Amino acid sequence: MYVLGIETSCDETAAAIVKNGKEIISNVVASQIESHKRFGGVVPEIASRHHVEQITLVIEEAFRKAGMTYSDIDAIAVTEGPGLVGALLIGVNAAKALSFAHNIPLVGVHHIAGHIYANRLVEDIVFPALALVVSGGHTELVYMKEHGSFEVIGETLDDAAGEAYDKVARTMGLPYPGGPQIDKLAEKGNDNIPLPRAWLEEGSYNFSFSGLKSAVINTLHNASQKGQEIAPEDLSASFQNSVIDVLVTKTARAAKEYDVKQVLLAGGVAANRGLRAALEKEFAQHEGITLVIPPLALCTDNAAMIAAAGTIAFEKGIRGAYDMNGQPGLELTSYKSLTR
Ligand code: KG4
Ligand code: ZN
Question: pTM value?
Answer without folding.
Answer: 0.94
